[in-house]
Write a structure and sequence with these properties.
The structure holds two protein chains of two kinds. Chain A has helices at 21-30, 59-62, 76-80, 88-91, 100-104, 133-136, 179-183, 210-214, 236-239, 246-249, 265-272, 280-288, 295-303, 308-315, 318-325, 354-358, 377-384, 389-410, 416-427, 431-443, 446-449, and strands spanning 3-12, 43-47, 66-69, 72-75, 95-97, 116-118, 166-170, 189-191, 198-200, 220-223, 228-231, 256-264, 289-290, 330-331, 342-345, 363-364, 367-368, 459-460, 467-468. Chain A is of the alpha+beta class. Mean pLDDT of chain A is 92; it is low at 457-469. Chain B contains five helices and 13 strands. The chains are: A alpha+beta, B alpha+beta.
Chain lengths: 469, 308
């Protein structure tokens, strides 16, 4: 066992309201530079839809991630011999508006309009595509371009009664087995030993863009001005001083959690090579992510040089509870085999209406049963567990039981409490678990959501004994 | 019986002779040195200037660099036509190669890989550095031109062979960050001008003959300097190690004074275009092979004759 520690994010999609505040604050903090106009280290996708860049999940088109050949992992770009990165049109042509015209235009009967202006060429342009275009069109036929329809008849979900939607905020997954890192011939990409953050060294990078092609999430971007590639830095200057990332800090729905996970580096590659994709997530949770309360793990962690503050933080990590103890959060597209270290709590669906109930929908009190949910389990499984529906159902059942339980505490009707407790135990939760989950998902304050040990080293000044931070 | 043996011997000799003539590509020495003519005054930067039309060029063979995982090279060879002039203070190289597509770095060109060309010099004359971008104790100086981005004066291979103090003194970052590094601003003394027309790139690269930086070699008349070339074809996605490279080619700057007297004799005595051949001439090996075969045949015939 070789223990390592990483600062990891969980996003609770049940609470995402799709406001894009995370994207905007990230953009304002890091990406208001020439050459990066089209870049969103953090973006929010309305699903089903093509995403950003368009159809990024389709690896027949983009050649990202790893493929398994026998017992060997190979980069898909290498297997296919195709190292082309996406073009600007695959993302979108960034634009602003000619606001000046609103002030300078001559007075007419009609109001002046501000024409769209390209942020690349400065010329007027027609806006034909954007980073979440399907949201602007309320889905439309663009839902066809979603890559998660396997095993589902997508035509059904275009019907008025059966449409569904959800939000998917995305940043770099800071993977344990990053294909971007392995694709770089200049070794410009590295994963930080101390906190697992994956970075592109701007001094080493020469803009070859193999990483852009090799990342299956398309989260490395080419800066056409500097001629180098850049990616989400997990706000490491903030993390280093114990502050959450900007996207987490400003999240309106408070959907984001940050905490330490201890993992076994020796197990990573073996799990990435799991022949059956549906087994990747269970093995990821069981074999790779370690229990920080286990004395053996703690001992190995200390031996590996992990600071006590980090082990301590791992024990009170909200991420550990959500991901490993309750198993209600999963990585995005584990079948790309990069072992992403960012986890999503799948969204529940809205309460069932009286109309639906009249049509025979099965409910748990107000809430739909798992199989009655608007968002098909299969769709979520295709997205988060490589098709393993069992895992998704397990998580959703816990979340439904939690809802029912909390409701039973407030709406006291005969038999309700018993029914709720039964649901909890069926879902594999105790009442204590439910209380704790409720606290973390609904009430958690800043320091409960973000448990970040600082990476600062204590320096002792010789002879004086002053300890400086 | 004897007759069969002699026939066999003859056949063997023929085969050996043929083998020798076929496998004759043995790099032994750089045969001729390319003379860099001296011109009075400014050298035209414009690649289409008529001055360049009169300069005798050499055809340099380029081959795709052999690469390892995760990149597979394109297997084909190309040709670069190299012309050179100097005026005492500067030396200019006129590089011309065919490329069906013009790939230039443009704003928003996320999937554009620009066409590029580079000249590699040793940092000091004498012991030649390793041709693949130098070594720790013997780095190389590279002038690298990229379409749409211009020219850079680089050093490669130096990084890990120097102490932080030495690197400081050279104007490089204290700790090396990359195998190829930009020389400090005071050494960015290279100029480039490029033109693309009808499937052909013509690029003029100019550097001072003087050593402006300790990692640039001093070029002096009469002293041979080895250079190597590389070309990138952007439309094939070539970047970094994906490129076509040449072997070392030796150039000699003509002395300014000599040039005046030599112009007359040169035009009369130098036969045909001076094509650089880096290998022992194939025709010589072929001739030797054929000679061996003929001798063997004659011997065989002689033996046969004696028997009868």
């Amino acid at each position: 066992m070789r223990v390592r520690a990483q600062i990891v994010m969980v996003m609770n999609l049940d609470k995402c309201i799709g406001c894009h505040t995370c994207s905007i604050t990230c953009k304002n903090t890091w990406l208001k530079r020439e050459g990066m106009e089209y870049v969103w280290w953090n973006n929010v996708e309305t699903r089903p839809g093509p995403g950003y860049p368009r159809r990024w999940e389709d690896q027949d088109r983009y050649n990202g991630g790893w493929t398994l050949e026998g017992r060997k992992l190979r980069l898909r770009i290498e297997v296919r011999g195709d190292y082309r990165p996406p073009a600007l049109e695959d993302y979108y042509h960034p634009w602003t508006y000619d606001y000046e015209r609103l002030f300078s235009a001559q007075q007419f009967d009609v109001q002046p309009s501000a024409r769209p202006i390209s942020l690349v060429t400065g010329e007027p342009m027609d806006v034909e595509w954007g980073p979440n275009w399907n949201d602007d069109l309320a889905g439309a036929d663009l839902i066809d371009e979603d890559s998660n329809w396997a095993g589902l008849q997508k035509e059904i979900y275009k019907q008025y009664r059966d449409v569904f939607m959800m939000y998917l905020p995305r940043i770099c997954n800071h993977c344990l087995f990053p294909s971007c890192l392995y694709a770089c011939p200049r070794k410009a990409i590295y994963k930080r030993e101390e906190d697992g953050i994956v970075l592109v060294d701007q001094e080493r990078c020469r803009g070859y863009r193999y990483c852009v092609s090799a990342c299956p999430y398309k989260k490395v971007y080419y800066n056409w001005k500097s001629g180098k590639s850049e990616k989400c830095i997990f706000c490491y200057p903030r993390i280093e001083v114990g502050q959450p990332t900007v996207c987490s800090e400003t999240c309106v729905g408070k959907i984001r959690y940050l905490g330490v996970l201890l993992y076994d580096d020796d197990a990573v590659e073996d799990v990435a090579k799991e022949p059956e994709p549906r087994n990747i997530v269970p093995r990821f949770l069981d074999e790779v992510i370690l229990d920080p309360a286990d004395p053996k793990v703690v001992e190995s962690a200390k031996k590996a040089g992990i600071a006590d503050a980090w082990i301590e933080a791992a024990r009170s990590s909200p991420v550990y509870k959500i991901v490993k103890r309750w198993r209600v959060a999963f990585p995005l597209h584990p079948e790309f085999r990069t072992m992403p270290m960012l986890f999503y709590v799948p969204p529940l669906s809205p309460v069932i209406t009286e109309g639906e109930r009249a049509l025979g929908a099965k409910v748990v009190d107000l809430f739909p049963m798992v199989e009655e949910m608007r968002i098909p389990v299969r769709y979520l499984a295709n997205m988060f567990t490589a098709g393993n529906e069992e895992l998704v159902v397990g998580a959703l059942k816990k979340l439904i039981a939690l809802r029912a339980y909390e409701r039973s505490l407030n709406v006291r009707r005969p038999g309700e409490a018993e029914a709720a407790r039964k649901l909890l135990s069926e879902a594999g939760l105790t009442e204590r678990d439910a209380e704790e989950m409720y606290r973390l998902f609904a009430l958690a304050r800043y320091h409960e959501r973000f448990v970040i040990p600082t990476a600062r080293k204590k320096v002792t000044v010789k002879g004086i004994g002053i300890v400086r931070p | 019986m004897r007759r069969a043996a002699s026939l066999l011997a003859a056949l063997l000799a023929v085969l050996v002779g043929l083998a020798v003539s076929i496998s004759a590509v043995v790099v032994t020495a750089q045969v001729p040195e390319v003379a860099v003519k001296y011109v009075e005054g400014a050298i035209p930067l414009d690649p289409n200037s008529p001055v360049w039309a009169d300069v005798q060029g050499v055809e340099v063979q380029l081959a795709s660099q052999v690469l390892v995982y995760p990149i597979s090279p394109t297997a084909e060879s190309r040709t670069l036509l190299v012309k050179a002039l100097h005026n005492g203070t500067h030396v200019a190289f006129h590089l011309e190669w065919s490329d069906g597509t013009q790939d230039v770095a443009t704003p928003g060109g996320l999937d554009v890989f620009p066409d590029a060309v580079a000249i590699q010099f040793p940092t000091r004359l004498g012991q030649l550095p390793y041709i693949c971008m130098g070594m720790v104790d013997n780095p190389v100086n590279i002038i690298y031109w990229k379409a749409g981005a211009g020219a850079e004066n680089l050093v490669a291979g130096a990084g890990y062979g120097l102490s932080p103090e030495q690197r400081d003194a050279l104007g490089l970052a204290r700790s090396p960050v990359s195998p190829v590094e930009l020389l400090p601003p005071n050494a960015q003394v290279v100029a480039a001008r490029a033109a693309y027309a009808e499937g052909t790139w013509r690029v003029v690269l100019v550097r001072p003959t003087a050593s402006v930086h300790p990692l640039m070699a001093q070029l002096a008349p009469g002293q041979p300097v080895s250079t190597a070339f590389a070309v990138w074809d952007g439309s094939r996605g070539e970047r970094g190690g994906l490129k076509a490279t040449s072997g070392w080619i030796s150039f000699v700057l003509e002395a300014a004074a000599e040039a005046v007297t030599e112009v007359r004799t040169v035009t009369e005595t130098v036969p045909g275009p001076a094509k650089v051949v880096e290998v022992t001439p194939t025709w010589a090996w072929a001739a030797i092979g054929v000679l061996i075969a003929v001798i063997a045949l004659l011997l065989g015939l002689l033996l046969r004759h004696r028997q009868t």
